[in-house]
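Here is a complete protein record:
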Amino acid sequence: MSSLLSISKLTMEFGGLTAVNEFALELLPGELVGLIGPNGAGKTTVFNMITGNLVPTRGTIVFAGNPINGEKPHRITARGIARTFQNIRLFTDLTVLENVMVSCHFRVRSSFLSAILGLPGYQREAKAGEEASWDLLNVVGLPHLAREKAGGLPYGQQRRLEIARALATRPEVILLDEPAAGMNPAETESLIQLILKIRREYGLTVLLIEHDMTVVMGICERLKVLDYGHTIAEGTPEEIQNNERVIQAYLGERRLA
């Protein structure tokens, strides 16, 4: 099976600082892979390069057979790569439903003039977008909060809303940046089930950054470990759990749980 996302020698330099050094990854369709490491290891920088928020200093990123180095974020999203953010980015003054509808609007083909004039083609697309938004809120368990302001949601529900917004762009690959951050154990277990559900029902490929080892060890099929921008290990969760270099760099103790 050929890779859906292929990354080679990906490097990001800021002045004299190398934040990520020759990162490589082959992501197969349907895989669920974790990217872990200490704070400041370069994980989010990798996400930012994949999604066009940063232009790599060098290296290649190929998605579905096409190079995407240096493309604008909206073009990469249109190709089929969506993401959530470590720091939640919602339209806090819009309702939960409106937040998802904004992302659904990304796929609207009608012209701006059609929207202004309220032409039938645009109205059909707008109605379809609203229906799709309701469906996604059902998927992430938030339909009862559809009319609430997004900024007033508890942290865990905001995380779920971000996932719904990412799904609204109809991705093939979804990048989740610390989705369990700030969640209690019950919310974390619910999140694990949600990630497995959307992967299964939408046929998604998932790349996950996470510090919560309950999530990482519970759902990831394989892991890559970064430390100071360098890949120090990769393998199954069991292999990583017993890797001496990972233990020293990432935890400083004899276990990863």
